[in-house]
Amino acid sequence: MARIRICTFTASTAATSKKSAPPNSCCSTASVWKSGELTRAVKQSKIPYAEAAAGIKAIEADHDHDHDHHEHGHDHDHGHEHHHHHGKYDPHVWSDPSLMQKYAANVAEAFIKADPQNKAYYSQRLQSYGKELQQLDTYAKGRFDAVPAARRKVLTGHEAFGYMGRRYNIKFYAPQGISTEAEPSAKQVAALIRQVKQEGIKAVFAENIKDSRMIERIAKESGSKVGGKLYSDALSKTPPADTYTGMMRHNIDSLANAMK
């Protein structure tokens, strides 16, 4: 039986792709590979594979993390692995639902190539999910456009929302870069506390994948309050963030409400 491997790093794409294959099709056992080792292995094999982020303009990782906000993007295809430590590019593409439309298209194209007899099924699923992603993007624009530009500033645990910031003109700050492994120095934390005070950042959030003590400390010493929890790199087992769109709506609403 034919099998397609989808090399990706997002829980949302994984959830979508595992449901994409029709029953008894050659792709009904399709799976998602997340690690760099498996990605390299599948490229060296003869197994058909797809890189879901292919063709997406990636944000270059800030290796010299200094807590300044970086909004620029770079014209590179985003086809690297996600290990949750520093790579060449920021892997958190899923924070921008407009980019997830490209993800979905890449996944559908790969399924169609591996299972052409069910092309109509995959095309229908892509069209349906594409509309859902478009609606999500429109919803986000509406919520964030209602927030004055000067108030679109957020502190989170690590830099997991760069693509969202680029899409909706929001400045995100964090004590850590795109990696969750390297801890910030005392000097860096002190500098960030000063910056939060100077910028008047009131929207402060913990993340579901990280210990919240660092954020709580920064919020306390800067005179802010932790406004809740954002879902950055993992879904929840139950609502509101047990699906990609559920996660995004939770994050969008939480951010928009906190920045007002």
From TrEMBL:
<feature type="compositionally biased region" description="Basic and acidic residues">
    <location>
        <begin position="65"/>
        <end position="80"/>
    </location>
</feature>
<dbReference type="GO" id="GO:0007155">
    <property type="term" value="P:cell adhesion"/>
</dbReference>
<dbReference type="InterPro" id="IPR050492">
    <property type="entry name" value="Bact_metal-bind_prot9"/>
</dbReference>
<dbReference type="InterPro" id="IPR006129">
    <property type="entry name" value="AdhesinB"/>
</dbReference>
<dbReference type="InterPro" id="IPR006127">
    <property type="entry name" value="ZnuA-like"/>
</dbReference>
<keyword id="KW-0479">Metal-binding</keyword>
<dbReference type="GO" id="GO:0046872">
    <property type="term" value="F:metal ion binding"/>
</dbReference>
<keyword id="KW-0813">Transport</keyword>
<keyword id="KW-0732">Signal</keyword>
<protein>
    <submittedName>
        <fullName>Tromp-1</fullName>
    </submittedName>
</protein>
<dbReference type="GO" id="GO:0030313">
    <property type="term" value="C:cell envelope"/>
</dbReference>
<feature type="region of interest" description="Disordered">
    <location>
        <begin position="65"/>
        <end position="92"/>
    </location>
</feature>
<comment type="similarity">
    <text>Belongs to the bacterial solute-binding protein 9 family.</text>
</comment>
<dbReference type="Pfam" id="PF01297">
    <property type="entry name" value="ZnuA"/>
</dbReference>
<dbReference type="InterPro" id="IPR006128">
    <property type="entry name" value="Lipoprotein_PsaA-like"/>
</dbReference>
<dbReference type="GO" id="GO:0030001">
    <property type="term" value="P:metal ion transport"/>
</dbReference>
